[in-house]
Amino acid sequence: MKLTVEKEKIIDGLIKAAAIMPAKAGAAYLRSIWLQAKGDTLSIMATDANIEFTGIYPAQVEEEGLAGIQGRAFVDLMRKLPNTPINISQDKDSSTLRLEQGRRNYRLAMSNPDWFQAFSPFPEGEAVAWTGSVLEEYLDRVTFCISDDDLQDSLGCLCIKPRENGRLDLCGLNGHQFALVSFIYDDLCSRLPPEGLLIQKKYLADIKKWLGPDELELNLTDKRLYLRRLDGAEMLSLPRALYDYPDYNLFMDKLNAPDLTRLSVGRKAVGECLGRLQVFNTEADRCVYMDMKPGEVLFSVQGSDLGSARENLEAEYDGSLERIAFPTKNLLDILGHFNSEQINMKFTGAEGPCGIVGPDDMGYVVIIMPMKMASSSYYDDEEESV
Asked: Among residues 2, 159, 166, 222, which is most buried (max CB within 10 A)?
């Protein structure tokens, strides 16, 4: 192998490759970044044995070849070099890879070439285009509701499910929260299997690091999902999860019941209120209590070693439910994923699912389960009654 490459043309790819490698890898193969010089390109490849990254960049190749090197050390060195051409050559006698840049000369130990295993190629045909920034926005709106526990099978996965009339549901569920973005995309809807596509949460961070504003191609096989830039320069592939996803219509349908209690309140005002009340939460009581009546809602935190707090906000209220409790932190996190100035809350009962939507967040809904209230009395007799 012998080639010359511009640092600024490959450094982003090297950083993305290093991000794929496991932080605590055991096998030397997984600690390696693989460089393949062929034609007039340099391919950069890395894997953690599940997710695979391939980047193809322009280079002046004199001799073709394949070399594996200790990935993180190589990337750290490349990041610290100036943006001038770098000569890379393989020293077969000493099993090292030589880097030369002006008066600088470095030698890096090479991995055994027998360790290399060919990466999965992008399946041609039936690929669907998608904008990276749009996908990233959808992932941000849903990922926080996916379980962090890999042992929870489908609850630890993002679900992309085709619906009728070209509609897609992109959703996440962790047992006490559910987030769904629904949108129309005929081409992708027709490409997905009826049971949908499941992606484990542990891969979503790698996908978001790789995504950018550019258009990309999406394709899939029975076992893997493939994402590739339209120019073919970079590709990410990862295994599909093959679990059965819960039927979320069972609780979504409850939000269409005729006897719901509804509350409309300013999102920013609620967020600021919850941020202050959260100061009074403890491990023993992590909740905020909502007492509702026409024209207003009272947010309160029960008395504790830290004291107690209550704030009253203007609101539009309609229904029979007067009191409910939610984990303060969870409710605050949910509000941060909305853009609407007003949020509308649909209550199915004191212990039933609550749906949150916003008029400027079309197709987006988050469901949160309330906390069971142990007592109907929140304040001492000496305090003003609600």
From this structure: 159
Helices 132-143 and 201-210, packing angle to 10 deg: 150
- Entry field: residues in the chain: 386
Rounded to 5°, the CA angle 233-234-240 comes to: 145
Name the β-bridge partners of 150. none
Sequence-ordered strand ranges (E) for 48-166: 52-58, 60-63, 65-70, 86-91, 96-101, 104-109, 128-131, 157-162
Distance CA 161, CA 180 (A): 11
- 259, with CB counted inside 10 A (0-12, 13-18, 19+), is exposed
Number of alpha helices (DSSP H) and beta strands (DSSP E) in the chain: 8, 26
Structure confidence by residue, pLDDT tens digits, 249-295: 999 999 999 899 999 999 999 999 999 999 999 888 899 999 999 99
Cα separation, 300 vs 129, in Å, equals 48
Task: Supply the pTM of this predicted model.
Answer: 0.87
Burial 361-377 (b: 16+ CB within 10 A, else e): beebbbbbbbbeeeeee
Adjacent-strand bridge partners of 346: 262, 355
